[in-house]
Amino acid sequence: MKIIRAKDYNDLSRKAANIISAQVILKPNCVLGLATGGSPVGTYAQLVDWYNKGDLDFSEVTTVNLDEYRGLPRTHDQSYWYFMQKNLFEHVNVRPDAVHVPDGSNPDAEAACKAYDQIIHDLGGIDLQLLGIGPDGHIGFNEPADHFPLGTHCVDLTESTIEANKRFFGGNADLVPKQAYTMGVGTIMQARKVLMVANGKGKAEIIKQAFFGPVTPEVPASILQMHPDFTLVGDEEALSLI
Ligand code: PGA
Question: Which of 9, 161, 171, 173 falls 20 to 30 Å from 60 in CA-CA distance?
Answer without folding.
Answer: 9
